[in-house]
Amino acid sequence: MPSGRSSVDAASARRRAIAALAGAGIPFPAREADLLLASATGQPSAFLLAHPEFSLDEAMRSTLVGMVSRRSSREPLQYILGEWAFYGHPLAMSDKILVPRPETELLVERALEWLPDDGTFLDWGTGSGCIAIALLIERPSCSCIAVDASPSALDVAWRNMRRHDVLHRALLWHSRTPRDIPLRGERLALIVSNPPYIPTALLPTLMEEVRREPMVALDGGVDGLKWYRALLEWAPGALRPGGRILVEVGDGQQAVALSSLPLSGLRHERTVHDLAGVPRMVQWIRV
Length: 287
Fold this sequence. Notes:
Layout: E1 8-9, H1 10-23, H2 29-41, H3 45-50, E2 55-56, H4 58-72, H5 77-81, E3 83-86, E4 89-92, H6 104-114, E5 118-124, H7 130-138, E6 141-148, H8 151-163, E7 170-174, E8 188-193, H9 208-211, H10 226-234, E9 239-248, H11 252-259, E10 266-273, E11 279-286
Parallel strand pairs: 5-6, 5-8, 6-7, 8-9
Antiparallel strand pairs: 1-2, 3-4, 9-11, 10-11
């Protein structure tokens, strides 16, 4: 995308961005060009579409050119924008965290069915903090323990929780195992998790954008079930009777494997499918 010093209006900049993104094979280039243009100019997309004559100054043009170049090299759009919405809440993004997916909102919706008005829940593998933040906003009297193996991810979660004024109800904990989580004698009302679930051997086959995300947030071990097992073996001693554990899964095969695991103290309740009929979540109850 050219970056000359002559005046460029929004319509011309948009056309150039779309052409560059389309040439790089980016899906939905017009949509992404609008998002990048809005970010580079600090103006809403609706304004720019309504005012195609809006003039980009040199700093705006330079920023847009850099953004389009980064996206053309398959850097995730969310990292370039530095912000992305989850469950209607804007969150800071960075390449230290997994990009929140729309399907994970299903996990939040189902969790709200079982999360009481007060009590403590665990978000295992919190990443950006997206799940914990959504639940804390919906349940103003609840508290949570948000755990992640990455200190950098916890830093992003901390900033997002502070932004949404829920930090005072959250304990952020750095750990690779649930066994050292400080419950302080309290039983959890709910456990939610979207853990790494990609089998190690499949990591090189992922889309280039996904491979730019942190491997620690993707690698689920030999069969993709490593982190599920660790959590499910620990969960019965942490949940109150009748408490639930809800986890996101990658595909139907994982859902079947997890629902068939022999687990002491937990009973499989259901597997939830998304609108496309794909298994997305498995749920157990503490018995």
